[in-house]
Request: fold
Amino acid sequence: MRLPNGQEDYYLSRELYSVAALTDETGTIVEAATYDTYGKVAVYDGMAQAVEESPVGNPYYFTGRRLDLLPLAGGLKQAYHCRARACDPGNGQFMQRDPAGYLGELDLYLYARACPSVLTDPLGLCPACGGDNSYLPETPKHVRCFSPDGFLACLEDRRAESDHLACAQMWHLIRKKCDEDLDDKIARCKKRCDRWFDPCDSPTANASCRAGCDALSVGYAFCRAAELGGLAGCDAVYAATLIGCEAGATETFQADSCPEGYVPAEELNRWWQ
Reply:
């Protein structure tokens, strides 16, 4: 495009058609631009020095709209010309009410339905109004798929995970039953002590008998050791059967569905339920 500087410059655009940079005929960058969420632009010259205005007279920036610089007491205010009205990128709103009224949004000053990274509103008539007044840039669809071998490997890993969990739960229950049996054994032992040695008539003998019952509590350590040994066995079996399917098991395709022979990633959960 021939700009006010009189030379042919070429636009480099990014998503939503926003201008990223301009180059001359040799491919040298003569201007670059960065944006915040709603398009407030920072302009740089060919030496990457920040400047307030385009060094080559470029008027187009965020979403390809013309940028107007309005002189205010504190400096220049940026405003994008969106045909029906102007947008203030500083606060992310239009500067005038929506000409469509409440047909589009309850907020008459809302820009792009507060989704400036996805929607644009080049005519200032609200993306929700439909028709040719707004558009959503086409975004290619992507789908994540398992290769046939990868799907089977992940299925086996899910089975290994389930077996490992069941094994651990079994040993937790064994530990709990062991502790409960020991609690019951100690309680019955103390009842016998009370029956054989009356706490009032023979307190010393009763206390000595009960102390012997308390000595049985060393069995709790046995219960815990048995649980830890069982859990270690669970871990060993799990480590031996785990394939590690996640490493390269899935691929992402730019398509609506998986290629023939591939399995959608979400199928793994459905198969295992």
Observations:
- Confidence is low (pLDDT under 50) at residues 128-139.
- Residues 148-196 form the longest helix (49 residues).
- DSSP finds four helices and twelve strands in the chain.
